Structure formats: C-alpha cells, structure tokens
Amino acid sequence: MNLVIFGPPGAGKGTQSKFIVNKYNLYQLSTGELLRKEIINKTPLGSEISSTMNSGKLVSDKIASDLIEKFISNNEYKNRLIFDGYPRNEIQAENLNKLLSKYNQKINLVLKLSVSLDIIKKRIIGRCVCSICGKIYNEFFNPAPVNSDCCASRFLQKRSDDTLDISISRYQTYEKNIKPVVDYYNESKLLKVVNGEKQINEITNEISGLIEGIKGWLCVITQYNYAGNLNS
After folding, report:
1. What are residue 114's phi and psi, to 5 degrees?
2. Most exposed residue of 13, 43, 124, 204, measured as fewest CB within 10 angstroms of its CB?
3. What pTM was estimated for this model as a whole?
C-alpha cells in the first residue's frame, strides 16, 4: 500500500505520518529530507541542489523524480511508501503515477489534512520548544506544565520563522499551489479529506479507519485474483 499525505505547515502532518509509519510499517519518503541528505553527504547532485536553492530557485522536477525513483525501484520499499511533500504540482503527480506503474505499483490512498487559517496561526505562533528536553508545546492547545524545572518558561524557545506574517504567507502559498494536485487526486477518487482540527487521537483514529478500509479492499482483490489464477 502506497499513500500520499498533504497538509499545510502546522496541520500536524508530521505527527500523523509518524503514526502511519509506525502502525503500518511504511517508509516515510520526504523529498525535503532526501534533498538535505544529498547536500550533507556532499554528493555531486548535492552540490547542484545546494547551488539551485542558494540562488532562490526551486529544485527541478527531474531531480526530485530521480531521487524518488531510487526508493520506488527498491523492493525493500515496494508498496510500503508514504509520500510526504511530493507531489507538489500536477506534473509531479502524473510523473509519480508513471514511476509507480513502471515498477508495478500505484497510489492507494491520498490524505489531506484540512485545517483553517485561524487554527494554523495559533498552532504556529503558539508553538515553543523546551531547550532542555526538546518537548514541543503550544500556549493555546498544549501549554507547558507550570511547576516543571525542565520546561519552565525561561527554557521555552520559539523558532525564528514562527511569526504571524510568515504563517499566513506559508498557508496561502501552500493552499494555492497544492489545489491542482488535490483536484487531480479527487478526480481519481483517491482523495480523502480529514478534519485536522480535531484532537490528535481522533485524527489518528479516522486515518486508521481509512487505511484499514483500503487494506481490506486490497485483500479482497488479491484473493479474487488468486482464485482467478487457480481456475485459469
């Protein structure tokens, strides 16, 4: 089973991706992480990526596609990938289908975490991290404990880019750019919209139910094909 997960910055996509990976033994494929690894490892491709990003340009679709194909073509990850941060446009979505088809695979489910701008603003500007233990809190939804030496207010730090203006800009840019991809998967009946404003456990339960439904349908198809092969 291969999945795609979407969500604007602050939607909780990272939390839900980890849940899916751990429960269903999938591999989270983040294009951003792949690009960073190439740069850190100082590969020839990493140098090209670094130069492109430093010039303020986007990495080409071909580079992203080549990196992803390494995993799609690897039997270790066959039918157990969750695509995070890819595809970002309709061309990439079509290319991903072609790559998966090339290795006898396909996308089985596309999840979109839907969260309003008002909630995103509170999640981002209220976010803080304990500099001692690394725990993440939110002053609106999950405040740090009052009587705690480790996570006392003097140890709580905010990321430099967690500002109101940046959060609004990121949200609007994301929603505008991702709409064609969402429409693309909606037409193929693969898209499931999940209310990302619920409690974390409620979201994970809803996602789990969707995945279990897909797994059950895949089992039915497998059994049907197996029976057909026996009778042929």
Report:
1. -100, 120
2. 43
3. 0.80
